[in-house]
Write a structure and sequence with these properties.
The structure is a single chain. The chain is mainly alpha-helical. The chain folds into three domains: 64 residues, no CATH class; 81 residues, Tyrosine recombinase, N-terminal domain (DNA polymerase, domain 1, Orthogonal Bundle); 191 residues, hpI Integrase, Chain A, CATH 1.10.443.10. Strands 1-2-3 form a three-stranded antiparallel β-sheet. It has a three-stranded antiparallel β-sheet with strand order 4-5-6. Helix 4 crosses helix 6.
Length: 436
Amino acid sequence: MATLQVRNDSYRILFMHLGRRYTFTLGEVAQGEAEAKAAQVDYLLMRVKQRLLTVPDGIDIVTFIQFDGKPPQAANDNTPFNPRQAVTVALLKDRYLTTYGNGTIEANSLDTCRLHLNHVCRFLGDAFPLPELKLAKLQEYVNKRAKDGVAPATIRKEVASLRAAWNWGEPMDLTSGRFPNRGLRYPKADEKPPFMTMAEIHRQIAGGGDPDMLWECLYLTAPELAELLAFVKDMAQHPWIYVVYCFAAHTGARRSEIIRALVTDVAFAAGVVTIREKKRSRDQRTTRRVPLTPFLRGVLQEWLKGHPGGPALFCHAGVVTRSKKRSPTTGHQDEKVRPSSLKGRLATVHVREKPAQGALTRNEMRDHFGRVLAASKWTVMKGWHVLRHSFCSILAAKGIDQRFIDEWMGHQTEQQRRRYRHLAPNAQQEAIAGAF
């Protein structure tokens, strides 16, 4: 309902539309004229709500109301009035990702957010106007994703990414009102199983368990971890691979944290290594410190004796086969268009300028993780995070104080603690034995 306000004989009208308040000034007009305009505003809003009137694309609601539902024309010709750009779901996605693509969040998180919003845009359509996003439409999206076999946890994350973009867009004047997810219903999700050893997982798979889900819960025991590192040392094609495996296994660092590690982060005198975080805080770059194990101290000291140079702790040395950064030549043509003669193929090839020493990339980390484990029993490992799980699980199984584990791991939640808590059987057995 439109509301009239008068100040110093000047009238203005307040009204609500799609959960947001708008105002415009009428000026010093007669009271009867002001009341008539307020009644017309109520009528127009009712017709819009009933979908008997449509606000044209690109016309803001205040302009639409001020001109009695008839968009104005330019004074000298028939060129339509050029209002502000209509806000669509694709526009919100592009503006949001551009803003946070400046290093505010780590690249992996940004890629995940982009993937989530792409799913939303594909369902709604890039031209879907944001003011029309209602609870019913969100529920359709959730139901469709569930029907496609997407896990409930993933659906929740996709909607959370859209909500984050919506909340960011409000002060940017791209969205208005509360994100319409109140009352949204998700499929019931299964609680993640606790972390398990390789032997436990094999037993559950033999009993009919889902291999894909179970191998996500793998952690290695201390003897298995030592066996894995010995295997990697024998099979690694580049010196940094073995050192990175050891670093991940003995610090619990994430892949992105390993990439950010600097030579100066290792303090042998203090016996600690500094881990550079990005997940704990959105407002500042945080760090945590993990004590150096005697094993890792020796591995890092040996690595730094022949370090390739540069500030990054882990990097390539010399020429690397099939690497876009470290191959000796460049200018090779695609096999679909290159000449058949050797002379013609080599015509565009030239020696690559030697690149400066730089940190490893995400793709290099992912590629070499799987490459070194190929055709072995370790191929069941689902990426670098298994070593983080193993680090924490071994500590928990040894009964290490939970406060120390939280400090060394960083970004721990109660849900994560519960998945590790069963790994302290001695303390639990003593507790229950004391009660009975």
